[in-house]
Specification:
The strands form two sheets. Strands 2-1-3 form a three-stranded parallel β-sheet, with helices on one face. The chain has 243 residues and is α/β, with parallel strands linked by helices. 28% of the residues are buried. It starts with 9 loop residues before the first helix and ends with a strand. It has a domain of 152 residues: Rossmann fold, CATH 3.40.50. Strand 1, helix 2 and strand 2 form a beta-alpha-beta unit. It contains six helices and five strands. One of its GO terms (cellular component) is cytosol. It comes from Mohoua ochrocephala.
C-alpha cells in the first residue's frame, strides 16, 4: 500500500537491474514514477542501465502510488483476505477501513493517463510548430525505439527496421508504478477505452497482478490530437522473461 514506504529488498534491486538491462536499448522521452521509495529505486535502477537515458529526469507523481489499503497496510495478504471474508466480500474488490475503493484507484489512473495524452499532444504540436522542422516520422533512425519483446508480441509492435513513420513516436514514456494500481489502470484501458489485446491473452492473465518489474507495453494513438478517443493497443502484458 501507501503507508509503508519501505525500500527495495536485495531481490528487488536485482529485479530492477534486470528490467534495466532488458530495456537498455529503448530510448525513452519521459520517465514517470510513483513517489513511493520502492518505485523511485526501481525507476533509477532501470535508467541506470539504459544506453540513451541515464541522465533523463524522473518525474515523481502521487497519482501513481499503490492502492491505499487502510488498516490492512503493513500486514500479510492473508489478513486482508480474512478481513474480506469476515465482511462477506471477495478480494480484490473489498475495501478495508481507511482504504481506497477500486473506483477511486481507477479515477487516479484515468486522471494520470489523460495527463499523459495531453503531454503527447502538446509535444506533437510543438514539434510541428517549428519553422522548417521535419516531423518525427521523417529521417530518424528506428534504433532509438528498439523494443525487446519476443514471443509476447502482438502484430501492432512498431518495426525496428527502416526508420519509417511506424517506428518514430512523439513520446515514448516509461511509467513505474505498483501491481494493484496497474491492474486497475489496465482494467480502465480495457473496459472504458476498448484497448485491443494480444490474441493469446487469457482472462486470468488480464486480471492477474504483474510480477515485480513485469513489463507491459501499450501503443497509444491520438488521431488529430483527439484526447477523447485514444486508440490503445496492448503489445504485451506483465512480461517477466527478464527475471
Amino acid at each position: 500500500g501507501q503507508g509503508v514506504d519501505e525500500p527495495l529488498s536485495a531481490t528487488g534491486f536485482r529485479q530492477a537491474d534486470a528490467a534495466g538491462l532488458f530495456l537498455s536499448n529503448v530510448k525513452f522521452t519521459h520517465v514517470f514514477s510513483s513517489d513511493l521509495l520502492r518505485a523511485k529505486q526501481t525507476a533509477a535502477g532501470i535508467l541506470g542501465k539504459n544506453r540513451f537515458c541515464k541522465d533523463l529526469e524522473i518525474k515523481y507523481d502521487a497519482r501513481l502510488r499503490e492502492r491505499k489499503y487502510g488498516v490492512a497496510e503493513g500486514r500479510p495478504l492473508a489478513d486482508l483476505k480474512a478481513m474480506a471474508k469476515d465482511a462477506g466480500e471477495q478480494c480484490p474488490s473489498f475495501t478495508p477501513s481507511g482504504g481506497e475503493t477500486l473506483d477511486e484507484v481507477r479515477e487516479r489512473a484515468r486522471d494520470f493517463f489523460e495527463f499523459l495524452c495531453q503531454l503527447a499532444v502538446e509535444l506533437e504540436q510543438k514539434e510541428h510548430g517549428k519553422p522548417g522542422a521535419p516531423g518525427r516520422s521523417a529521417g530518424t533512425s528506428g534504433e532509438q525505439f528498439v523494443f525487446p519483446w519476443t514471443n509476447h508480441c502482438s502484430e501492432a509492435e512498431p518495426s525496428s527496421e527502416g526508420g519509417g513513420s511506424s517506428t518514430i513516436l512523439d513520446a515514448n514514456i516509461l511509467v513505474v508504478s505498483h501491481g494493484a494500481y496497474m491492474r486497475n489502470w489496465i482494467g480502465y484501458f480495457v473496459s472504458d477505452l476498448n484497448c485491443t489485446l494480444p490474441a493469446n491473452l487469457t482472462k486470468s492473465q488480464l486480471s492477474s497482478v504483474s510480477p515485480n518489474t513485469g513489463v507491459s507495453h501499450f501503443i497509444i494513438k491520438l488521431e488529430n490530437g483527439n484526447l477523447l478517443k485514444p486508440e490503445i493497443t496492448c503489445v504485451c502484458l506483465n512480461q517477466d522473461s527478464h527475471l
